[in-house]
Amino acid sequence: MTKHQPKGATFTASELLAINAARLMTDGQTVFAGIGVPLLAATLAQHHACPHLTILFEGGVIGPKIVPGELPPSTNEQRCTRRAAMVLPITDVLLLLQRGYVDLGFMGGAQIDRYGNLNSSFIGGPENPKVRLPGTGGGNDISSLTNMIVAMKHEKRRFVEKVDFITSPGWIKGRDSRAKSGLPQGGMWRVVTDLAVMGFHEETREMTVLAMQAGVTREKVQENTGFALRFADKVEVAEPPRREELETLHHLDPDRRFTA
Amino acid sequence: MTRDLVTPYAKLRADTVARDRGLREKVTTLEAAADLIKDGEHVALGGCHMSRTPIAMLWALMRAKRKDLVVSRSIASTESDMLLAAGTTKHIITSWFSQGLIWGVSKVMRHHMEHKLARYEEWSHMSMGLRYRAGAMGIPFIPSRSMMGSDVSKELGADFKTMTCPFTGEEVVALPALNPDVAIIHVQRCDPYGNAQIDGLQFMDIDLAMAAKRVILTTERIVSNDFIRRTPDQTRIPFITVEAVVEVPMGCAPHECYGAYEPFFDHMDEYADITTKDPVKGMQDYLARYVYGPKTWSDMLSELGMEAVLDACRRGRSVYND
Question: CB contact, 8 Å: A82 with chain B?
């Protein structure tokens, strides 16, 4: 992932993703976080602008406090429960999404398309898959029921015109196709990569570049994307990682297990 | 063996009525408990991913050469790799299947699914939970609002249905109830009758116990009935659902049991190495060494090594250090 790293930078692509994603959160929100960059981002946000952010884990945890250096390997092990407000059955924590208590879902992605649909089930389609991936987990529930942030590497093979399989629905075929499919709430909100931060056009629901990382050109973002991107009227330049943000990440993940 | 997607209500009730639900001792051995499960039955596994996985009971099922089981679980990990490789199952119903994020995609799962040697029936995580819950509630289906518009639902074919809400007119999903033949659940403690207390994460286990036609409990330790009656508010699974109780200390090794031991991470790294290099032979070598080779469960733990056992326990108990 170092190829997009500007010269002299002292942060990794994963750190860049975590920092940019953390800045998208608002204090007081309740966030469903996956393991890795999503959890780091949510915890980073708690340390800076969002001290009242509540994290939920799929394994059945409300409000855990992450112990620096002890990031959990999944959302289902005991490390997820440290200093939590409550542990509850998996089904009930997921039902909080359906009930409407969750402001943001935040996860990584293997493959995404123009309309923000995610594939984590099959590379090459379900009949004769080239790769059988692990599957949805809570991804489908989260993306069906709340607003989503996805953090992923910006590579052409990951940003495709049409995903091989819709595991977690974004805006499906664009425009009002999501609501018409029976999903009146939520939807793909932001995609954060090592090159850019993207949203989705209000009407067409096509992926739209809102900001680019410092030093990155439109051409570079487009070159690494498998479909024609839209660009906002005014594309911002993302603020580079601040020293205190990087320090917090180093403190949380001293062994660089999730930020290497 | 063809099966109804939803167990007919009359059968569900009759099966329960036919069981001896009296307050009786049910303590038995892994081998005898394995005999309670028949080839072709639907077995639901408690815990989630690498947590409170009933590994010891599955170990006994693999050694007993049980076959053609349908296996369901909230999230499947290396235990389901092992069941596939041992021929115990060719059909896994779950929402996510791999060793774990930090080890990449399971090569054993990939081998079986990409070569069409087995079926991975994928439902969303909440849908798995609601299917067990509907089973626990004794209703044929439960409405929900996810999985629509995705290909996960299309892949399920006729098993996935939507309906119009009779009150609001909205389109909702009708998830079919899941009533497993057997639920295998590992707990921290229970009494000889099967009153079980669970520490930490409960996952889907309470619904599993209520939905299943019978429950096999494995437990870190058996406590007295008096112990249970002093803190009945801590009891999560009632004896009336339970058919057998087996005391198996470290019964989830090399996975985790909350407050007792964390996953054996070094062993899991080795497992990933072996199965990534060769998902077929590597897996058979692993089964020979850890499943078929040891004479007893204690021998299996010896194979993991005293150092590893103590390390996992030290980390496991650390949740109570604060």
Answer: yes
